[in-house]
Give the backbone structure.
Amino acid sequence: MTKIVDIRAKSGDELNGMLLDLRKEQFNLRFQRATGQLEALGRIKAVRRDIARVKTIMAERSRAASSNKA
């Protein structure tokens, strides 16, 4: 699980990379669960929440940037 402070410290490019990595991990975990190979069931929930955290920070920055332009 990633702390929100660590996510906020990252740049936009780092957040995009992190989101891509998390989505790949989520896909792999779903694939493992479907084939019966997954042992760490809690990891699926943690990855889903990390994805939500990253997307939330990206949305906040997007809104802040658009409100600064107006």
Summary: The radius of gyration is 15 Å. The chain has one domain: 4-69. The mean pLDDT is 93.
